Amino acid sequence: MEDTNTDFRIGISSIYPITIIQKQKHSFWHGALIVRLQLSSTRHLNILLTHLNPFHATARKKECEQIVATIQSSPHSNEEWLVMGDLNSLSRLDESSYNASNIVTTLTQTDKLSQKFLTEDHTAVDYAPLDTLMIDGELRDLSSSRNQLGHLDYSVPTLLDVDDMHATHMRLDYVFGNESIANKVSRCGVLRNEETGILSDHYPVILDFE
């Protein structure tokens, strides 16, 4: 578990050997942790864990630009990479669900919600942060945007319902991966049940890969 710029810490545990590659604070509201797992004698998995800015999409876009730059400049850029965490952002892949729920109306109820999730004119969802990861970074959103019933695979709010910023069902927690690992993923989605509903104000995301 590593310190960040705030009271929120970032950590990882693994049955595989972990090497901390880098800790980043200067370009992030909270911070980012880059680690390298040795899965076998010939295979390594690079993971960037982060918790993006909780206030403004424009700030999160800059953080996502830093994430892309970090991966692309890494000497291990051709290896398997995952980017994961509370990204505090809405995904364009969920746009149909958000349009159906008229989420813009919900998010314009308070200035804080509007500033966090909407464009500067407060008329539309600002998808720019995650677009940066998917377009500029060529990373794939490995999480399921819909559950088996075809509904939004939301990660907030949980049963605790303690955060006013979780004003409606939203997917804020993600796992992104590059092409080297994306095709090896067999399952990735939000784990919602009675137990996980009271463990945190966010539901966890589970990922299985070969």
TrEMBL record:
InterPro entries: Endo/exonu/phosph_ase_sf. This is Endonuclease/exonuclease/phosphatase domain-containing protein.
